[in-house]
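Q: What changes when 7,8-dihydro-7,7-dimethyl-6-hydroxypterin is included in the input?
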Amino acid sequence: MITAYIGLGSNLSDPVMQIHHAIAAVKKIDNSKVTSVSSIYFSRPMGPQDQPDYINAVLAIETNLSAIELLNTLQAIETEAGRVRKDNRWGARILDLDILLYGNEIIKSQRLTVPHYGLKLREFVLLPLAEIAADLILPDGDNILELSQGIDKNGLKVYSS
Ligand code: ROI
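A: The predicted holo structure follows.
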């Protein structure tokens, strides 16, 4: 079993409901067990500001799936939520499920970069991650608690716990 961390985000179609639904869907993934779920956070958009505010959370999952199997499963959950994959990398989305970490592995393939490229730059990833895994160390040796304490919160707040 590998412990992976997944970031969840939504800013369309009732984001709080989307995140609750997504957490329930991830809990049903075969060969896997969700071991912790952060609070649900309210965050301001990173990137273009002419889009709604976001709801974000992070969860930990122990899984026997490979990283690509996990990615395929998460993308199926995004599609099920009604997400249309188009060229809107920085735009509004119904549901985003990102593999933040997959054990201590470093993965650089066409479909997948792990650790997630935005991990250290995003308050809406670092603070929820620190909430559920304060003693986590990244593959490069950086410490999640220190990173989370060093980042501007940019209005991030707990929406519900
Ligand atoms: N901004 C916030 N606050 N939360 C997100 O999940 C998020 N996701 C994105 C971009 C557009 C970068 N901005 C975001 O993909």
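Observations recorded in class: Residues 106 and 139 are 7 Å apart (CA to CA).
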